[in-house]
Design goal:
This protein is an alpha/beta fold. It is about 40% helix and about 15% strand.
Length: about 400
């Protein structure tokens, strides 16, 4: 490893341990011997900064006057506190990594880099504007009013940075279209934590959680964004004819729309809803499943994202049923971690039944998944890739200085 770096990371997310990309990346960089300060939005605080430490990461929480999902990088009050803090911070940071480019993150990064003549990078994890998540994960009125603003902040600063990390290949291609040079882009998908998500036996997990030992259990994990579930509910209705005791175990805060969908397909009694789980309990619940489902139809927002749940699924050592689109298609084809189904409920159901009825296939796919989780997609491996990218950016002589004034 080259010399240890002192890195400032700036994100708009709130302080959630292990559930935000910035915190996980920071934690693993610290394990590699680097020093990381993470500037985030406070969970609830509206006045004053708070400093703490998690997993060796120095965390600074900035207050925000907004609430709920609006507390996500748009508040000038939050930005003012960040700039006030950075105006006094004399830490000798080597570079700034900006997680997404909403106002509270990008303007804070630009301020610091201009003042100290440092380079900054941005991280891109979702295709939001231009037909992306804004069309499915926001109220219908949001797009017409704020779609242009979302798209502007999503795109405008990418080519001004010294480097870009992207979670999906489609975002890399979109960045190239915006003027970012390919050699300034690092593809960094979501990683796995195989030391936490262990491949325990279903019997052990079901006994601990209190689920039936004999019933077929299909797993689906999410915190609060349960997307593209219509094909799963339709497939579940088909499977239930052959397996009357089948259960779909769903984690996270399930919205009413999901329950309405289950009711429409008459599969409510086949749902087992765990609710939101503490991070340390999630592996035990996932370990109850015979297999996992991850609906992934061919949409703009799916092409431009990486479903982090696939890392948890692979770590648990169970096969997954998904669809052949985006970066997921390559993972399944290259590493054989599950089966790909057409975007058709009948085929999706048949792939699930194939795994349920073929224990040797399920075991083989599950072992493949666990092996890939421990190697190709482990955070340790991905962080080594990121670290090399950092040193590449810092050592470049063919880039203009990325320190820019705030226009």
């Amino acid at each position: 490893m080259n010399k240890a770096l002192n890195i400032l990371m700036i994100g708009h997310h709130r302080k959630y341990r292990n559930s935000t990309r910035a915190h996980v990346i920071a934690k693993y960089l610290v394990r590699r011997g680097h020093k990381v300060t993470l500037l985030v939005t406070a969970n609830e605080r509206r006045f004053g900064l708070v400093e703490s430490e998690w997993d060796g990461v120095r965390i600074i929480e900035a207050p925000d006057l907004l609430w709920g999902r609006l507390r996500s990088g748009w508040d000038p009050w939050d930005l003012a506190w960040r700039i006030g803090y950075l105006s006094k911070d004399e830490s000798p940071y080597d570079l700034v990594h900006c997680f997404e480019t909403r106002p509270t993150t990008i303007y804070a990064a630009l301020y610091y880099c201009h003042r100290h003549h440092k380079r900054f990078l941005t991280d891109w994890i979702d295709w939001v504007g231009r037909g992306g998540l804004i069309t499915v994960n926001r109220p219908k009125w949001y797009g017409p009013l704020f779609g242009g603003i979302e798209t502007y902040y999503e795109e405008a600063f990418r080519a001004r940075a010294a480097g870009l990390t992207v979670i999906a290949s489609a975002l890399a291609q979109r960045a190239i279209g915006l003027g970012v040079r390919p050699d300034r882009i690092c593809h960094l998908p979501g990683g796995t934590m195989p030391d936490m998500f262990l491949p325990r036996s279903q019997v052990e997990c079901r006994r601990k959680v209190g689920l039936p030992l004999e019933d077929p259990i299909i797993g689906y994990s999410s915190s609060d964004s349960h997307l593209d579930l219509e094909i799963v509910m339709a497939a579940l209705a088909i499977i239930a004819r052959e397996y009357p005791n089948v259960k779909l175990l769903m984690t996270g805060q399930v919205k009413k729309a999901v329950l309405d969908l289950a009711k429409a397909y008459e599969v409510e009694r086949h749902l087992h809803l765990s609710g939101f789980l503490p991070f340390e309990e999630l592996p035990w619940y996932l370990g109850c499943a015979d297999l996992f489902v991850m609906p992934f139809p061919d949409t703009i927002y799916n092409r431009g994202r990486w479903p982090n749940k696939i890392g948890d699924y692979m770590s648990i050592g169970r096969p997954t049923i998904s669809n052949p689109y985006g970066d997921i298609k390559r993972v399944f084809e290259d590493f054989h971690v599950g089966l790909l189904a057409d975007c058709d409920p009948q085929d999706f159901a048949q792939k699930i039944i194939t795994v349920l009825e073929n224990s040797s296939l399920a075991t083989k796919l599950g072992k493949n998944a666990r092996r890939v989780a421990e190697t190709e997609f482990s955070w340790e491996e991905l962080i080594r890739r990121l670290e090399a990218f950092y040193f590449q950016i810092l050592g470049r002589t063919d880039l203009e200085d990325s320190s820019v004034a705030i226009n």
